[in-house]
């Protein structure tokens, strides 16, 4: 009988434990992807674009191995039962996901399949360490990153990545949806041009990006990773989010890449683990603050400010450059994510959940664990978060991490003629400098929608009010 291999967020053939296991058994394989109509959270727009192209790449890859990816949509348990009946499959294999909403669903799917006499086996493929096994001395999950990561590093190394299966025995052709009929990419309007220019989804592209990073980026990662103008990070996040490459592949490749120091880079993979482990233990991470006192935070409603923020028109160049880059390319450098998130929740007092939802829709790497974890970190309501009262000054952040304004000039061309000393604070430029730069402040580019000093005091007062109401 054939074996169904259900692909989820593991759209790769190398280091895919479920696929490798199926290949080893020497039975025909039916690779399957389900567009789950009962997914706990529908994918955002940018992620739908990525999924389309990633599935296309996986289809090509499997076809090259003599197999065929079957595409179906519906409730996962219905689709699996139906395909098992049609094909006579008695076994379904998949790699585990750890989001509690998903694991709850997977348990139900398993029961439905088992009750029909179909065997289910699951494997570890998307994390370095299993969230069920990393515990502190009291047997509890870690709440703070540093001891969490220290503990992970004392555990046995994760298993080495599995090679691409040599051969996949094919099963007779099964009916499949056409990918185009799923209409995943945006149509009217099609806003994906900038994303398509910036990215190539798929396993091959992920491998090439990793190889480039190991050759050019890893050596100076620790020194340069915070500088958005230097293109110094790996940009593997969407490939990791869709499982086009596994964290184990990245981990081992970095560790064996030569004599470069790797701790700082591996530590970021550690943050990814920490966010996923946190989500495993706190399934409502995207909506509920982990620190209960933040339930009472006096947030503001300011629709005009929200519009200015999402359109990159706040008057703070580093914030606007980030928001425009996000919209255009579907990705944002980590430093920019922190700066814009801080501006939204502290300077504008807009709830972090709104920012999380915007990122969810616009990021190609939108990930339920890292996105919610990142927002809670910035908003000060995560377990291991930046203290709320530490408020980023968007001008100083810009001057520190983009000292020559290269990032600003790239994303806000109307500011391109300003000299370095005012590019992060155009409202301080003299009339003469503005005229020379051809910039009409308030027309070509807005004046700040809030004054940072006053906004900072307002945020601190809101924080005090929250503490007093606890
Ligand atoms: P590198 O610096 O090259 O790091 C390598 C890998 O480590 C990344 O690909 C990523 O998988 C992981 N990583 C790095 N930094 C972090 C971090 N702080 N937290 C968790 N994992 C990390 N990351 C996402 O993958 N998806 C998201 O939806 C997401 N939303 C975020 C929202 C906010 C508000 C913040 C502050 C951070 C968010 N991050 C998210 C984390 C981080 O910004 C991105 O992972 C990183 O910028 C991706 O770039 P890179 O691949 O070049 O990272």
Automatic annotation (TrEMBL):
Residues 1-128 form the Photolyase/cryptochrome alpha/beta domain. The keyword Lyase applies. Pfam families: DNA_photolyase (PF00875), FAD_binding_7 (PF03441). Its cofactor is FAD; (6R)-5,10-methylene-5,6,7,8-tetrahydrofolate. PROSITE patterns: DNA_PHOTOLYASES_1_1, DNA_PHOTOLYASES_1_2, PHR_CRY_ALPHA_BETA. The record marks 299, 352, 375 as: Electron transfer via tryptophanyl radical. InterPro entries: Crypto/Photolyase_FAD-like_sf, Crypto/Photolyase_N_sf, Cryptochr/Photolyase_FAD-bd, Cryptochrome/DNA_photolyase_1, DNA_photolyase_1_CS_C, DNA_photolyase_N, Rossmann-like_a/b/a_fold. It catalyses: cyclobutadipyrimidine (in DNA) = 2 pyrimidine residues (in DNA). GO terms for biological process: photoreactive repair; response to light stimulus. It comes from the Bacteria. GO terms for molecular function: deoxyribodipyrimidine photo-lyase activity; DNA binding; FAD binding. Binds 1 FAD per subunit. Keywords: Chromophore, FAD, Flavoprotein, Lyase. Its EC number is 4.1.99.3. FAD binds at residues 221, 233-237, 265, 365-367. PANTHER family: CRYPTOCHROME (PTHR11455), CRYPTOCHROME CIRCADIAN CLOCK 5 ISOFORM X1 (PTHR11455:SF9). Belongs to the DNA photolyase family. This is Deoxyribodipyrimidine photo-lyase. It comes from Telmatospirillum siberiense.
